[in-house]
Amino acid sequence: MTSAATSLVQSVDWQAIAPPTLTALVALGVLVADLFVPAVRKQLLGWISIAGLAAALVLLLPLRAGDRATFCLTPGARADAHAQTAGCSYTADHFTLVIQLLVLGGALLTALLSLPATRAKLPAGEYWFLLLSSAAGAALLPASRDLATLVVALEVASLPAFALVGLKRGDRRSSEAALKFFLSSVTATAVTLLGASFVYATTGTLHLAEIAARLDEVPGRFQTLTEAGVALTLVGFAFKLAAVPFHFWVPDTYSGAPLPVAAYLSVVGKAVGFTGLILVTVVAFPSYSDVWGPALAVLAALTMTAGNVAALRQDPARAGSAVRLLAWSSVAQAGYLLVPIAAAAYSSDDQVGATVAYALMYAVVNLGAFAVVALVARTHPGKRIADHAGLYATSPAAALALAFFLLNLAGLPPGIIGLFAKVTVFSSAVDAGLGWLAVVMGANVVIGLAYYLRWTALLFRTPGDAIPAEPRRAPAPVTLAIVLTAAAGAVLSGYPQFALRFATTGLF
Amino acid sequence: MIDISETVMQFLLAFLVVAPLLGAAAALPPAPPGLRGKSPEQAVLRHGVTVTGVILLAAIALALGFDHDRPSRMQATTDIAWIKALDVRIHLGVDGISLPLLVLTALLAFLCALYSFFKPPAGPSPKAFVALLLLLEAGTLATFAVLDLVLFFLAFETVLVPMYFLIARWGGEGRRAAAGKFILYTLLGSVVMLLGLLLIGIKAGTFDMVELAAADGRGLTTSVQVTAVLAIGLGLAVKTPMWPLHSWLPDAHTAAPTVGSVLLAGVLLKMGTYGFVRIALPVAPDGMHTLAPYLAAFAAAGIVYGSLACLALARPGAKGDLKRLIAYSSVGHMGFVLLGIATLTPTGVNGALFANIAHGLITGLLFFLVGALKDRYGTADLDTLAGATGAALYGRAPRLGALLAFAAVASLGLPGLAGFWGEMLALFAAFDPAEGLNRAAYLVFMALGGLGTLLTAAYLLIVVRRVCMGGPRPAGEPELADVQPYELAAWTPLVALTVLAGLWPAALLGLTDPAVQQLLAGGTQ
User: From CA A112, how far away is CA A106, in angstroms rounded?
Assistant: First the structure.
């Protein structure tokens, strides 16, 4: 009797699933607490959310061995470690932990940026609930090892994001951005679901590792259906990553959304996209690498070129140009992120580590850049690049930090970690024999430098006849976010091994 | 010469790389009490002189402690793991090839700082100027001191941003466009170079230059070597610059402030040729062997092109800018360096390294002198300077005129001065290139190079005639200040070393020759 009972009730490894679970619980808690907290104390909700995210980050520590898995089909088969995790829906391996660190850390920094914004413009309770829910979904995604969980996690991460984008009440641009984002995203997710259903139809399983094993045995008449399924599944994640041709929503959405939300989308949204892509390509469909490998390589080349060329054409004097430039540059950076995944099709799975290393660097410096833009936007609400002219004269520390972030994005010293992250990506392309992609990326790095450097040079220009804006005290949370990202960037520059270690070790 | 313990030597070399970085960081905050000087500007410029001076002393100490009996051995080596993931090691070392370049860099940086102390650059606050100057020095010193391919790339890139800002912020007319052209051109080259370096590192399994040189290309197929040398060579050729990839150089030099020009010509260009000798030659000998004739052809074309461009600029009525003229002359001189390397013989490579140093000394001096002329006249336009009859510098500022004539004569390769030996050796080696290279082609290149020396002499003598000589001046012309004491202090070391290297070339060749022999022989003693 007892043995039958244990086989029916799953034993759940609560500690393994703690980080996303805690985030989701805090989200619910904040939503309920919003009803009881008086309007003047709404800031409290923000601090609770930040504490929750910090606690979730701490909960990653006990998992750092990277050998936990739960929600398994066959809890009895404990003998072989690999066979044990093959049927599990939730795995806390090194890959999961790094991405969760990235996602939760990114959400934490976004939360710091959002604190001043929620004081006045945004409804606090809803805002924190949506942000945390989305972060919980994004943290669940890298741990998912079956298609159903993967799609659910993708939706949990995306749905609150639509609302976040449209949260500026009474702002037409914000609502329009949200609608654009929503419609294109839902279409992409629907296509992914269709693809997943094709794959399920031909293989009879949803677990990624099982799919990988059974794809080889698909009968010949289902071959086309399977290939279509594989291709369609990738679409949804390519959309989240904003890869060409699924990138049109990015500039309008970023510039219409509240600034912290744009920062969040540019980092956590991207993480969701490339994590999903890595999981479906490298873990689930390795035997179809001749299908997705060339496709991703071409996609990478197109994405980085389109993003860079559009970013280069931004007029610095136009309203919102700072955010639009960061938006287009994030499209270009998504192209770089795709390169190692494409390279994995030609050599070994380990290449995707370069994507993870690059994403860590990108998350830190891009959030930092957004933080400084948010700081400047307090005095110049136009968010124009031209507003940054002579920033060094009024606030030297912020200008130096932004210069550091931009040079990291460009990949030039003193942005050493940016340079080395690019070197790992180049290295994966060269290693996989994708010489043409490496050359395209090289040309793109030069285009990228042109606009990053133009912005950097602007920071140190002596302010002309423009009256310097009244110096206002920078809000403490935003300052903290800038300090944290700058310190992280500086530490990584001195000790790049911390981020780059993932580029060579097997993550799965 | 002096027995300095290995630990101290290691420290000195590491100090050379790290000290300018720390100095650059220390230049940004306000000076501490006691070091404030007359004004914040003066204090920070003095800081620059102090730091570069200390670095120069360290470089001299390193040169004295260097074991001159075994210059082919890597000395003062440090080898620490840095980034395990990429197999990047902080591997520093100095041998007979890099030592002269290290000392030259430290010397020129010090002279530039000294010159700027007395003549602050026109433009925004000198604080950033000093910080950028030191950052630039750190990048160049690191380039010559590192023995790891990825680290070499990092050091190579480090100089870009400071040089960009030096030109874009303290430069003359058209500075922004020139600075942008400089950085985009060089970055495009260096990204391609990175691909070549990665190709070598991945195929050979190590980024360590010493190991790679010892392997002498074993383990790398010929096609990999050719691809790698093509990619690396492209990046280095942009930096050197090799005709036809030189077009960023004249603009950058024309717009750059005096100090920027001196460092650009004196040190930055050397990073390109140094890369050829240190990386392309020993690491991928087969690839270098395949591509050497093309390199030599471009080098010979560059020699003739550079001198023809200078002749055109020196013509009366051509509106030639003196700085632009010297920039084009650099293209010619660096052509000799590349020709020497492309012969793949010890003679040629030694000549190239000698010409490298000589060009750094002489062209550095020339840019200082032209900068001084520009300060006095307000323009470096040759036609405005010379007027109808000539600027008559001998009469108006005899010392300045004499120095200019000296530098010009040194630059055209007068025997007995530094410019002679390197170019002579390069031509000499082209007469008898390494085995397997097409001798007939090299004879043509040699003839072209010889023609180039003639043309070089022609345009430099025209410049001397138009600037230094001239008819009697109209009455009531404002007095022209002659050489100031601080100018003399900044220029004398360059003059003295030009004469010394011309009269006693063995001092330099004795250092480089054993190291070159070893590199060409496949890293083994």
Answer: 10
- Considering the domain architecture, whether residues A269 and A317 belong to the same structural domain is answered as no
Q: A397 and A372 share a domain?
A: yes
A113 Cβ partners below 8 Å, 6+ apart? A259, A260, A263, A367, A370, A371, A374, A477, A478, A481
Same domain? A76 vs A203: yes
User: Which residues on chain B are in Cβ contact (under 8 Å) with A496?
Assistant: 82-83, 85-86
Q: Is residue A162 part of a domain?
A: yes
Domain span at residue A199 reads 13-284
Q: Do A453 and B153 touch (CB under 8 A)?
A: no
Taking the C-alpha atoms of residue B139 and residue B263, their distance in angstroms, rounded to an integer, is 12
Q: Is the C-alpha dihedral spanning A401, A406, A408, A414 positive or negative? A: negative
Task: Give kind and range of the element (H or E) at residue B81.
Answer: strand B75-83
Nearest to B266 by CA among B186, B328, B192, B358: B358
Asked if residue A498 belongs to a domain, the reply is yes
For A505, nearest residue in chain B (alpha carbons)? B85
Last residue of a domain, one of A284, A317, A333: A284
Dihedral sign computed on CA atoms, order B279, B282, B287, B292: positive
Counting Cβ atoms within 10 Å, is residue A170 exposed (0-12), middle (13-18) or buried (19+)? Answer: exposed
Kindly state whether residues A253 and A299 are assigned to the same domain: no
Domain stop point among A284, A315, A335: A284
Is the CB of B139 inside 8 Å of chain A's CB atoms? yes
Q: Report CB contact under 8 Å: B153, A423.
A: yes
Same domain, A260 and A145: yes
For residue A5, tell me if it sits in a domain: no
Size (chain B), residues:
525
User: Judging by beta carbons within 10 Å of its beta carbon (0-12, 13-18, 19+), is residue B452 exposed, middle or buried?
Assistant: buried
Walk along chain A (508 residues) and give the pLDDT tens digit of each residue.
444 444 556 678 888 899 999 999 999 999 999 888 888 888 888 999 999 999 999 999 988 887 888 888 765 444 444 555 667 888 888 899 999 999 999 999 999 999 887 777 778 888 999 999 999 999 999 999 989 999 999 999 989 988 888 887 677 777 888 888 888 888 888 899 999 999 999 888 888 888 888 888 888 888 888 888 888 888 878 887 888 888 888 888 888 888 899 999 999 988 998 999 999 888 888 888 888 889 899 999 999 999 999 999 888 888 888 999 999 999 999 999 999 999 999 887 678 889 999 999 999 999 999 999 999 888 888 888 888 888 888 888 899 999 999 999 998 888 889 999 999 999 999 989 898 999 999 999 999 998 999 899 888 887 654 545 555 677 888 999 999 999 999 999 888 888 888 877 767 7
Cβ pair A259, A323 in contact under 8 A:
yes
In angstroms, the CA B211 to CA B282 distance is 10
Could you tell me the residue ranges of all domains in chain B? 6-472+494-520
The structural domain count of chain A equals: 2
User: What single-letter amino acid sits at B523?
Assistant: G
Distance in Å, alpha carbon of A504 to nearest chain B alpha carbon: 6
Tell me which residue of A320, A412, A318 sits closest to A365, measured CA to CA. A412
Do residue A423 and residue B194 have CB atoms under 8 angstroms apart? yes
* Closest by Cβ to A442, choosing from B158, B192, B201: B192
User: Do A228 and A323 share a structural domain?
Assistant: no
Q: Which of A392, A407, A423 to mutate to test the interface with B (most CBs of B within 10 A)?
A: A423
Residues A271 and A296 in one domain: no
Residue A451 lies in a domain: yes
What CA dihedral angle connects B345, B348, B354 and B360, to 10 degrees?
-120
Asked if B82 has any chain A CB less than 8 Å from its own CB, the reply is yes
Residues A204 and A303 in one domain: no
Residues whose CB falls within 8 Å of the CB of residue A190, separated by 6 or more in sequence, listed in order? none
Q: Is the C-alpha dihedral spanning A98, A100, A101, A103 positive or negative?
A: positive
